[in-house]
Amino acid sequence: MATFNNPLLDIRRQLQKLVIMLSLSIICVSLLYHLLVCCESDLVESSKNPPWLLSGWYRERNNKTLLKEILTAPDYVMEESVNPANSSGKDWTAIRRLPHALIIGVKKGGTRALLEFLRLHPDIRALGSEPHFFDRHYARGLSWYRSMMPKALDGQIVMEKTPRYFVTPETPARIHAMSRDIKLIVVVRDPITRAISDYTQIISKTPDIPSFENLTFKNRTMGQIDSLWSPLYIGLYARHLERWLAYFPLSQIHFVHGERLISDPAGELGRVQDFLGLQRIITDKHFFFNKTKGFPCLKKPEGSSKPHCLGKTKGRTHPKIDPEVIQKLREFYQPHNMKFYQLAGMDFGWQ
Asked: What's the angle, vertex CA 185, arms to CA 344 and CA 112, rounded to 5?
């Protein structure tokens, strides 16, 4: 009986060995396959970020600038610092940094347009919203302020815009305490046109307020201008500028001509780029004039079916104002404008 069973046992053992060997072979093949796939994936990923991209170069395609597509993306963060052989020791880590430049004013002067235009530049990282740190949220501290900023590489300029800064008395000292070397940009336009634009925005939200003419005067019969009414107070540029000059030299303040920002956006953007120490990358090829809105728009970007214009809240139709009131405002602002021209070292030509 034992002799009869031995051959069956041998066959069973051989089958078991065969199954084990087959299983081990399958496992080995699977491991090899996964290793090859991972290696190939690493090669593909590395090919997506060629060395020239890290060097900050850019190239043209279909007359549009391909602007640091990967490194300047809002959610891009490098895990480690990278020091290419020819990087001169620069830190290539994208981190949140305090601003190097601020657009501090003025409301309804063209600050939103300027910010959107500047964001075309590959060496500018700008916060889209207005943080109001130095006028409303200063108690939250610089750590909170830094956390609001977009991530940026070493050498990129971080900036934000809050037009209220220019007219808030506390802000010059607070900004100076953060950085003595910060660059300040002020967009100004004819204070009368600016005031009417400001009023137009106000009535779009609260249509039941008195007329512009009535709000302009403390006493219309006496012709006494209410200079503390916000739309008029903001236009006292010389008064506000004097506070800033107590903390910053004029060389750190750049004035953007609001009217020319509409008629010659490339020229104004060129001067801003010079002030920031940047190459003039934003040029007239990026703009076209929208006759319906009455101001320049950005030409159609790649991957978009429409050109980029500012929102419907921009370019509102202004109400007609009594010419006598306009004349009274011209007389009121004339000495203030002359003083502003002297302080700023520029003649803006407002009548």
From this structure: 125
pLDDT band at 309 (very low <50, low <70, confident <90, very high): confident
**Residue 265 — φ and ψ, nearest 5°?**
-60, -35
Alpha-carbon distance of 328 to 264, in angstroms, equals 30
Any idea which residue has 């199954």 for tokens? 19
Whole-angstrom distance, CA of residue 241 vs CA of residue 191? 14
CA distances from 237 to 17, 186, 206, 325 (A): 93, 10, 26, 20
- Residues whose CB falls within 8 Å of the CB of residue 342, separated by 6 or more in sequence, listed in order: none
Interatomic CA distance for residues 254 and 92, integer angstroms? 29
Please write the tens of the pLDDT for every residue from 140-157: 999 999 999 999 999 999
Sequence-ordered strand ranges (E) for 175-274: 183-188, 217-219, 224-225, 253-257
State residue 177's pLDDT score.
98
Tokens representing residue 340 in the block: 């502003």
Within a 10 A sphere around the Cβ of 298, how many other Cβ atoms?
20
With CA atoms as reference, report the closest residue to 137 among 110, 168, 112, 114.
Answer: 168
Q: How many CB atoms lie within 10 A of CB 12?
A: 10
Token pair belonging to 109: 């002067």
| Tally of residues, the chain | 351
Q: How far apart are CA 186 and CA 143, in angstroms?
A: 25
Q: pTM for the whole thing?
A: 0.72
- Tokens standing for 219? 């006493």
Q: Burial-class residue 333 by CB neighbours within 10 Å (0-12, 13-18, 19+).
A: buried
Q: Measured between alpha carbons, how far is 158 from 152 in angstroms, rounded to an integer?
A: 7
Reading the block at residue 77, the tokens are: 């963060």
Cβ-contact 339, 236 below 8 angstroms: no
Return d(Cα 94, Cα 164) in angstroms, integer: 29
Residues 184/101, Cβ–Cβ less than 8 Å: yes
Q: 242-257 pLDDT, tens per residue?
A: 999 999 999 999 999 9
